[in-house]
Amino acid sequence: DAGVTQSPTHLIKTRGQQVTLRCSPKSGHDTVSWYQQALGQGPQFIFQYYEEEERQRGNFPDRFSGHQFPNYSSELNVNALLLGDSALYLCASSLGTSGYTFGSGTRLTVV
Amino acid sequence: KQEVTQIPAALSVPEGENLVLNCSFTDSAIYNLQWFRQDPGKGLTSLLLIQSSQREQTSGRLNASLDKSSGRSTLYIAASQPGDSATYLCAVRTGANSKLTFGKGITLSVRP
Q1: How far apart (Å, rounded) are the C-alpha atoms in residues A88 and A105?
Q2: CA distance B42 to chain A (A)
């Protein structure tokens, strides 16, 4: 049973560029959440998607946007990248009140 | 606003020791609490999920307890091994559809 799959694994971008990260949820899960984890910190909630709609959003600027597709997969887009956006981006999926299952993350480096 | 604290930030123990990792949260009205393990540069692996109606959960050498009234959870690791070396994160969920709020984690080193 495949867990949560994220791509790419690593990414290097230049300041001002745009980036798209992808996530396929665990089989049977319908809710996808995105988190940003800076070095030495706990993950911070970005937003959550359910039924192709953004259900909740954390304290992140509008440069961060997302999408959920009919097959429950999701994308995270970040525009106008800043050096401070360098982090590990984690995708998590869930079904109802089950626990969250996390992917291996995408390491984004902005130079 | 829910806040989760994990102290200390780092812990080093000799192999074979039993140990307890602590997690505290400010709002006792939680839905559930989940403990995760994270290896350096990797994603999160779920260890144990405790629903708000439960007092503890066990999986192998791991036991997690929950005391909502005092805003505390502990993760007990029996007979620690070098392979247990990792960062352990605690996260709380305040509603059925709500986000997870994480602590900063405790980095555990088990010395052979």
Answers
A1: 6
A2: 5
Taking 90 as the threshold, does the pLDDT of residue A19 lie above it? yes
Assigned token pair, B49: 């999920």
pLDDT band for A98, please (50, 70, 90 cuts): confident
Size of interface A-B (CB pairs under 8 A): 61
Query: In 10 A of CB A53, how many CB atoms?
Result: 8
Q: Does the beta-carbon distance from A90 to B43 stay under 8 Å? A: yes
> Which strands make up the sheet holding B72-77, listed edge to edge?
B4-5, B19-25, B72-77, B62-67, B56-59
**With an 8 Å Cβ cutoff, are A100 and B41 in contact?**
no
Summarised one tens digit per residue, pLDDT across range A27-81 is 999 999 999 999 999 999 999 999 999 999 999 999 999 999 999 999 999 999 9
CB A12 within 8 A of CB A106: no
Residue A1 has pLDDT above 70, yes or no: no
Q: Please, are residues B57 and B49 in contact by the beta-carbon 8 Å criterion?
A: yes
- Backbone CA torsion sign across B84, B85, B87, B88: positive
Question: Is the CB of residue B39 less than 8 Å away from at least one CB of chain A?
Answer: no
What integer pLDDT is reported at residue B6 of this predicted model? 97
For residue A88, the distance in angstroms to the closest alpha carbon of chain B comes to 8
B98 interaction partners in chain A (CB closer than 8 Å): 56
